[in-house]
């Protein structure tokens, strides 16, 4: 009976978000309370479970996500992202324009949230299209594939960051494995697959022709690259050095402090604030206004993540999570594949990669301890599944369609297939890594 209740709760969540157009935060709250009622949690303890889940989930995430949003907004507004793009285009040359855009999209995508990154790189794509008279989809899809991969696979993006916390994974190793998976996923879904799309006719809207800063307004190349990549550099260095070098106890404590994702993001933001903010002549008051605007961009994401944690806590307190874990242990499908499938199904139904990832995590969290699965790979498996088959219920689908001025059919051929290829290649990579690590 408990499994039937869970099924209808998840189905209800999907219907509320996709068919009822209910805000995901409200939908999660309604479903969490309903699940608590039907699963037998005492009336006076249901809201306590929801509140505990929200608090526990957000407590370790707010710092990372908010600081990440601030850094991304600064990278965009300061012209650092534009500088990175210009350097990459000059380095790769006309012959390898696609690869220049792929690398640029990947670098820019690390600190930027997907929606911000999309709006930022599209003018760059269109400037190349207009300048070199090349097919828009053929040129643009590889860059957007790089953005999608960073969003689904790599911390400090919201979903992978939240999954790392829920599964007690290691942020540094998840990032390292994610980078390994990112390369083939981007190459296959981007430059290789886009060769089949040269015949798609697309006339990008004139509205989206680029508005750029002048060269004298841009930060230096070194400051731009370091500001965007510093979180990745610090996470990888502080994760790998203790495993490669025997450190004295005092240094171990220092590395443990610096390797905390919140500390990493604070250091990166402080560096960027000075190097591409104050050093560029920006006033502290204006920088703080930029950071305040960035928080507005992620407030909705934080609410969704928190409310998903509320549902997870209700499932845990009801005891159903342990029952599910016990049953799944008897299923002859590998836990990593199962996680991918559940995330993909929810993604197809709901349209949100974040909702798909967090809902799957709530269902499968107890499996980790019992199945002895590498938690870092579980994060990546769910992340890959949560990108599968983006279609008409996903805002990203419509962003791509409208910006590139495409038909529904051509958007399915290009955008939907690109996202699905990333998901499948990501799963294959996770399963191969599972044989090694």
Automatic annotation (TrEMBL):
Family membership: Belongs to the GntP permease family.
Keyword Transport: yes
Taxonomic superkingdom: Bacteria
Keywords noted in UniProt: Cell membrane, Membrane, Transmembrane, Transmembrane helix, Transport
Compartment(s) where it occurs, according to its Swiss-Prot or TrEMBL record: Cell membrane
Membrane topology: Multi-pass membrane protein
Protein name (Swiss-Prot/TrEMBL): Idonate transporter
GO MF annotations, alphabetized: gluconate transmembrane transporter activity
Matching Pfam families: GntP_permease
Entry GO CC: plasma membrane
InterPro entries in the record: Glcn_transporter
Regions crossing the membrane: 26-46, 58-76, 96-129, 136-154, 174-193, 225-245, 251-274, 337-365, 377-400, 412-436
